[in-house]
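Notes, Module 5: Reading structure tokens.

Key idea: the token line is not a picture. It is a compressed description, and you learn to read it the same way you learned to read a sequence, by spotting repeated patterns. We will look at two proteins. The first is printed below with its tokens.
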Amino acid sequence: LSCPYSKVSWVCGFFTDTVRDSFLIDPAIILIVVGVVMFFITFCGCIGALRENIRLLKTFSFSLTLVFLTQLAIAILGFFYSDQLEKGLCAPMDI
């Protein structure tokens, strides 16, 4: 009885590790997370402007600055590592 269980556990363990490793780089999950973050940022800006709450407006301004600097850093890194980025993106598609 232990032999079939060990095979099932090995297959399920391999499947679980594969799903766990690919889950964080799944584009749908990334887009959902970015959408939720952007919702909260814009919610702070909207409610801050509606209620004239300086703290929410400062949070909104800081968040937009942080998003802009993050995008700028990713663009600069993408420019400097464009060869590696191209190999990484084209390899899974077999182009």
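Here is the second protein, with the sequence above and the tokens below, as before.
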Amino acid sequence: MAPSSSLYSSGRLLPSRTASTPKLVGRWLRPTCSLAMNGCAAGAGDRGVVSLQETRVLPAASAPQEAVGQLRAAVAALNAEPPASSCGIIRIEVPIRQRGDAIEWLHAQRQSSLPRCFFSARAPLSDTPAIAAAVTNNGNGCHKEQWEQPVSVAGVGSAVFFRGTDPFSLRDWRAIKRFLSRDCPLIRAYGAIRFDATSDASVEWEDYGAFYFVVPQISPSSVKVNRSTIQTAIINLNHVPTKASWDLAVTKALQMIKGRQKDLVKVVLARCSRYITDTCIDPLELLACLKVEGQNAYQFCIQPPDAPAFVGNSMICDEVVVNPSKALRKLPRVQHLSAQLAARLRNENDEFDILNALHPSPAVCGLPTEEARQFIRDYEIFDRGMYAGPVGWFGGAESEFAVGIRSALLGKGHSTLVYAGAGIVEGTNPSFEWDELDLKASQFAKLLQYQEQHICYQEARNMGTLI
């Protein structure tokens, strides 16, 4: 990989490459960055671990301006004296006592050519110092990071990204893990996997491929998210499928469930709702609004370069213990049955096997899995993309994934696609399940409908979901 890095503190963003000229955006500075290599290129999964994975922690800074100077000097030293290793990742950190706002910071990074991401912590954070981090592609030295709690992370740019058009495989997983190390647990690959990678991707999901992960080039950690509001109104709404098509699909599913062969026990059918608003919606502002609603949920935002943003407010467990009994988990509009499980991995490859075995879960696909997946292929008339697929991150010391439900895809225009699903079992009433879809989508709808305005409802037959 060619040497490249950028710096972030909770006040300024600076480039490390002398050829780059920073652009002033308000009180933030923005770098000119190039996109990194695809770590899943042919044969990448067959190579060994990269020759260098390390973290360098600089002295703590009392203010962002002080951190900027330290980061600038550290990266300048790397440029002046390049390391011997030809391939690897270095993370440079400066602890900052003042926590920054993730939305404000990401807003300043509005270069369309750069990927962005945000992943919330699993649990509320106490008042701990923020971390300013820079990731570079080679260097020398070593440092072990110690973390006692989960942290929320925002990211921009890519030190390395991973994207493929074939289903996510063990070789792809190995291609990602070769860049990660237990000694550097905050060097992570954030992203998502398609619900069904064997189906054709529609145009709005093309940039995501069958899977998409990124190690951010700049990733402030332990960030906060301030409250936000969206001042917009819905002017048009249509659903795929229509209510009539939904009823037909549910009726067909019930016939199979009740049939003599009992080929199908449960199937989860979904709906894609296209909202047209009078103003463009920033995915980061929507994310901030969702965080207010979802204190017990997992907020995420993934946006490949110059692509729509996948934003969600999904369920995740606060802790993992051995407890096979089911409990009721309540959210503002819906509730779920949940169970907590734990196990010890025999070897590192088990991580991939577990992820592969858990997806798709009966909660988003059905039972038996293959029969339910085939029914969805036959009767759903839109592309789920990353909706209902695994969303999260891989790390050297741990990994974390949720199911990408309660999610939406936001394009650059005035269009937002909102996804919701409902489980079909014996005794299901199609109209009741349609109402449940409205309820699940309402967390997005109420945020988009800032003021009362007549909505033009349309029910498209087999429309494409261009955004």
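Summary for the second protein:
- The CA atoms of residues 18 and 304 lie 26 Å apart.
- DSSP finds eight helices and 24 strands in the chain.
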